Amino acid sequence: MTEKVRCLIIGSGPAGYTAAIYASRANLSPVLYEGMQPGGQLTTTNEVENFPGYPNGITGPEMMEELKNQAERFGADIRFGYVTATDLSEAPYKVTVDGEKVIEAETLIISTGATAKYLGLPDETKYAGSGVSACATCDGFFYRKRIVAVVGGGDTACEEATYLSALADKVFLIVRKSFLRASKIMQERVLSNPKIEVLFEHETLGLTGEKVVEGANLVKRKGEADEEQVHIKIDGFFLAIGHKPNSDVFKPWIETDEVGYIKTFGGSTRTNIPGVFASGDVADPHYRQAITAAGSGCMAAIDAERYLSEKGI
Ligand code: NDP
After folding, report:
1. What's the pLDDT band for 254 if we cut at 50, 70, 90?
2. In degrees, to the nearest 5, what angle opens at C-alpha 257 toward C-alphas 253 and 263?
3. Quick one: 234 and 248 in the same domain?
């Protein structure tokens, strides 16, 4: 079963939906596949306070719903489905959805975002769904009046710790360095929150517990003369240590950096393959904000429109 489309957008975060808004208004009749997590990472975030135009903030899921509605208003065909294979050897590019349906696309906009990283400890797998989570907004509810730990020192970790502090009795923030990497405002929120205890220069060795997480074994100042083993009692262990770009399915064809971020060229969203564009977190190791993702989604749609018109397609 093969279907031909002019503009295929993969991914449904701010980049994908914005590309869909622009591509549909430019009469490219875009088809967008939402992927595993419709709405993308922002659906797992709570309040978005820094997107211009929302002076009182908006929740991530609400914002994504509005972007989706806006794209559909102009005729974007938004579908549920996950890309399982690609053949970008020649145009039109072949994209397989859910292992069976093949789409032939004249242009492709990759906006597949990024996925939360884990530490790589066997215990993260052992206690998956039993106290280990990479999404405070999704799972925080289960830890009301309990004790939790968040790993990481960036904006995500500070945001998750702050969010969890409104539910849990106590939140440990486990930071491997002696400082937080997060923005000043997020740092201040964490450091002034009486429910959050920041454990600087601590790393996680493993988790303990009969069936569910009951504690964590940490090491303080690992490798130093005063290295110390520390045990904390916790009910939940939240990872907030960054993300991995979702580019694997395109890798045989698309150039990425060593981490997996898709390379774009000339200040545009062009990839190494003509007619294939990348926008949002999958191509952005630097900013990774909803607003920058939306901006690059707009750029990708404009780049796709110009490509098609130059080709006379
Ligand atoms: P970051 O890459 O900014 O931070 C990751 C954090 O995890 C760092 O503190 C890092 O430590 C730590 N870390 C990484 N690997 C390990 C490990 N193996 N063990 C222990 N700690 C580890 O990721 P974020 O997800 O926090 O943020 C990504 C981007 O999104 C940033 O640009 C951020 O500003 C933005 N963001 C903005 C928000 C907002 O404005 N509301 C909310 C959330 C994110 P180290 O410092 O030692 O490298």
Report:
1. very high
2. 65
3. no
Measured CA to CA in angstroms, residue 144 lies from 139, 141, 164 at distances of: 10, 6, 8
CA distance 24 to 28: 6
Q: Is 288 in the pocket of ligand 1 (CB under 6 A)?
A: yes
| Stated pTM of the model | 0.77
Look up the domain containing 159 and give its range.
118-239
In angstroms, what is the span from residue 121 Cα to ligand 1's centroid? Answer: 18
Q: Which of the listed residues 42, 58, 123, 156 should we mutate to test ligand 1's pocket, taking the one with most ligand atoms within 8 A of CB?
A: 156
Domain co-membership, 122 together with 200: yes
Q: What is the best residue among 42, 176, 220 to mutate for testing ligand 1's pocket, by most ligand atoms within 8 Å of CB?
A: 176
Q: Which two tokens stand for residue 266?
A: 């000339």
Asked whether residue 45 carries a pLDDT value surpassing 70, the answer given is no
Q: Which CATH number characterizes residue 111's domain?
A: 3.50.50.60
Distance 306 CA to ligand 1 centre (A): 36
The domain boundary residue, chosen from 239, 264, 292: 239
Say yes or no: 56 and 87 in one domain.
yes
Residues contacting residue 125 through CB under 8 Å, at least 6 positions apart:
none
Same domain, 130 and 104: no
* Residue where a domain stops, chosen among 187, 217, 239: 239
Q: Which residues are catalytic?
A: 135, 138-139
